[in-house]
Design brief:
The chain has 507 residues and is α/β, with parallel strands linked by helices.
């Protein structure tokens, strides 16, 4: 072996020159996309932005290990559609599916969607897709399935929806191309990025059905955006009516409000504004003129909530209930602070995001043992909605995602469906697959595009009936759910979390 090959001697080693050149080219190839606007690819349709892999996939790529199983099943169903040779359209489930840089867990999320909640919603959407497609050879109805079949795409906008613009651009391209994207569902939570996503998709003419998005600002007359989830104004009105009833029964029943004033969170703003408007309309007497305010997402949030907990538990005239106009993660901090107040037995009432109380939670037995009651207006619960439809869905859910579970476990109120997220993911997807089916016309031969799907969504609840798990699916002139109750649920901690159904309530 020569000295030149080993890089020794006084002359320039050509192997080293080549190696240095290759390294430089590789570094340049990495650097130029970063500086000139290109993206590092994670998979087909998926790029790395800000430490997260975001974009649109047919299930060939999983955005989080929590989603691996449901992503695999969605991919298999999409492949079955392709192999069937049947006409097909695509529906995209848009959601924040990663958690921090590279999807790593730890620390507070930018939004209030736990990975397990996203998984449950996708499981529900997948079961609605599969029931529509009817591609099982063992199913005697396999040849009766409506055409076109539906492919389900997964669109990750990144934590807190940070990369929604890139994803919306991809969806616009898919709607114009051979993918035949005709609608979007999911849409996560009511934050500014969700509002912006809805506006962009509205301008692109892509109809949407939100699963658990609640902000009142999203509604428009003659809508492109629909939802199976009740908006925050309805949730606040339900809570105000319950509290007004308590004050009628007991004139000494004292109520106040604790509210998050964080900018950019439309859920918090809608909830507090809706509650304040509802209590004025229903004559609910609040103990103070302004209530108690804090701002989530700050280093001092926990301390502020501790001070508020001390005030509401030690008020000169004891409070009986507080309405917590904020998200579930802040509610957890508040409940933990209340648990440090000896003898505090407040009733805390909140909105749909209260299920986040259990995300990343330590042992919460203290507040249950001392008599604190945490209740919220939930979109769905296994003990609410349509019993027959829920029983069938629970059987399918257990078969696919809880094999080996005892009979009836999935239908039970304390089973894996108790958070209601799988139910809502299913019902949002059901609305769209039914719209696809109806759009083919009486003879089943009409073409299906985005405009046809919107046309049929406008019919739901008026000329067409759809039986959802959580109740009838139909929309008013603003795209909000029509004729659907909410579940009034108590959060309990008994060797683990429980969502205990208390009542069905209407706005």
């Amino acid at each position: 072996m020569s000295d030149r090959r080993l890089g020794r001697g006084g002359t320039t080693p050509w192997g080293a020159v080549v190696l240095v050149a290759l390294v430089a080219v590789g570094a340049l190839a990495w650097f130029l996309p970063k500086t000139l606007g290109g993206d590092e690819k994670c998979a087909a349709g998926v790029v790395r932005l800000g430490g997260e892999c975001v974009g649109v996939t047919d299930g060939a790529y999983s955005f989080d290990e929590e989603l691996d199983e449901v992503t695999r099943r969605i991919r298999e169903e999409n492949e079955r559609v392709e192999r069937s040779g049947a006409a097909s359209v695509s529906i995209a489930y848009v959601e924040s599916m990663t958690h921090g840089a590279d999807g790593r867990r730890g620390g507070e999320r930018a939004d209030d969607r736990d990975p397990s909640v996203v998984r449950q919603a996708l499981e529900g959407a997948y079961l609605a897709q599969r029931a529509h497609n009817r591609l099982d050879a063992a199913d005697p109805r396999a040849d009766e399935g409506p055409s076109p079949k539906v492919r389900l795409l997964l669109a990750n906008t990144g934590e807190g929806g940070a990369h929604y613009e890139r994803v919306v651009r991809d969806l616009e391209g898919l709607a114009r191309g051979d993918e035949h994207l005709v609608a979007v569902t999911g849409l996560g939570q009511s934050v500014d990025s969700t509002v912006a996503t809805v506006e962009r998709l509205r301008r692109a003419g892509i109809p949407m059905v939100g699963a658990t998005v609640a902000a009142d600002e999203l509604a428009r007359k003659d809508p492109d955006f629909f939802r199976v989830s009740q908006p925050t104004a309805q949730q606040a009105a339900i809570a105000a009516r319950e509290l007004a009833g308590r004050q009628r029964e007991d004139p000494g029943y004292r109520v106040d409000i604790v509210k998050d004033v964080k900018e950019g969170d439309t859920y918090n703003k809608s909830l507090r504004d809706g509650f304040e408007k509802a209590v004025a309309a229903r004559g609910v007497r609040l103990a103070t003129a302004d209530g108690y305010s804090f701002e989530s997402g700050r280093t001092s949030t926990a301390s502020a909530l501790t001070y508020i907990a001390d005030q509401v538990c030690r008020a000169k005239e004891e409070l009986d209930a507080v309405y917590f106009a904020a998200r579930g993660r802040a509610l957890r901090q508040f409940v933990q602070a209340l648990g440090q107040q000896p003898g505090c037995t407040l009733a805390v009432v909140s909105g749909s995001s209260a299920l986040g109380l259990y995300f990343d939670s330590p042992d919460l037995r203290r507040w249950g043992a001392q008599g604190l009651r945490i209740r919220y207006t939930a979109y769905a619960h296994p003990k609410a909605g349509d019993p027959a439809a829920l029983a069938d869905f629970a059987d399918r859910y257990c078969a696919d995602f809880r094999p080996g579970a005892r009979r009836g476990a999935c239908a039970a109120g304390d089973g894996p469906l108790q958070s209601g997220q799988a139910i809502m993911g299913h019902d949002a997807m059901l609305a769209l697959v039914k719209a696809v089916e109806f759009a083919t016309g009486p003879d089943g031969g009409d073409p299906v595009d985005a405009g046809a799907v919107r046309q049929m969504l406008l019919q739901l609840g008026t000329t067409k009936e759809v039986r959802g798990l959580s109740g009838p699916i139909g929309f008013d002139a603003y795209g909000n759910p029509k004729g659907r109750p909410m579940a009034y649920v108590e959060l309990q901690w008994r060797s683990g979390f429980r969502y205990v159904h208390k009542a069905r309530l209407w706005p």
